[in-house]
Amino acid sequence: MLRLRLVRFWPLAAAALALAACAPAGGSAAGAAPKGGGSAAPTEVYVVATDFKFDPPLIRLPAGKPVTLVFDNKGSVEHDLHVAALSIHIHANAGQGAKATVTADKGGAFDLDCTIPGHRELGMKGSMVVAAQ
Ligand SMILES: [Cu+2]
């Protein structure tokens, strides 16, 4: 009996550690938001900006579902995440983060860039692909 319990405990502990490791570091949030909503809570999509690119450069969003875009600026200057076609514009100062919850209600591939002058030309551009999921 005891042996069986130990065997069952470890996969759970490993899963908890894996979840903790995936949590974003830094940012200004004092604590993690409570997750009481179950499947109703928006999915979070992480985008990192550095000088001068987006990681990943191609961001996929589900159509018609709320998604929280978490924009983490790890660069040494300000950056933003801008998708004109979807009215998305998230700005973050150097070393800071920002987030916005969006619902993309049309499918397709849309141009994404940073609107700080000169940054697009330096490589801060990509695509946001919206599709049914
Ligand atoms: Cu930029």
Q: Could you describe the 3D structure shown?
A:
- The protein is of the alpha/beta class and 133 residues long.
- The protein has a single domain (40-133), classed as Immunoglobulin-like (Sandwich).
- Helix content is 16%, strand content 41%.
- It is built from one helix and nine strands.
- The chain has one helix at residues 2-22, and strands spanning 43-50, 53-55, 58-62, 66-73, 79-83, 88-92, 97-103, 108-113, 125-131.
- The strands form three sheets. It has a four-stranded mixed β-sheet with strand order 2-1-4-7, with no helix packed on it. A three-stranded mixed β-sheet has the order 3-9-8, with no helix packed on it.
- A hairpin with a 2-residue loop joins strand 1 and strand 2.
- The chain is globular and about 35 Å long.
- Mean pLDDT is 81; it is low at 1-37.
- Residues 52, 79, 114, 116, 119, 124 line the site of copper (II) ion (CU).
The gist of it:
The protein is an alpha/beta fold and 133 residues long.
List keywords for this structure.
133 residues; alpha/beta; Immunoglobulin-like; four-stranded mixed beta sheet; three-stranded mixed beta sheet; 1 helix; 9 strands; 16% helix; 41% strand; disordered N terminus; binds copper (II) ion
Q: Which bin fits the share of residues in helices? A: 10-25%
CATH level-1 class: Mainly Beta
Query: What is the fold named in CATH at topology level?
Result: Immunoglobulin-like
Strand content: 35-45%
Q: What best-fitting shape do the alpha-carbon axes yield?
A: globular
Succession of helices and strands: HEEEEEEEEE
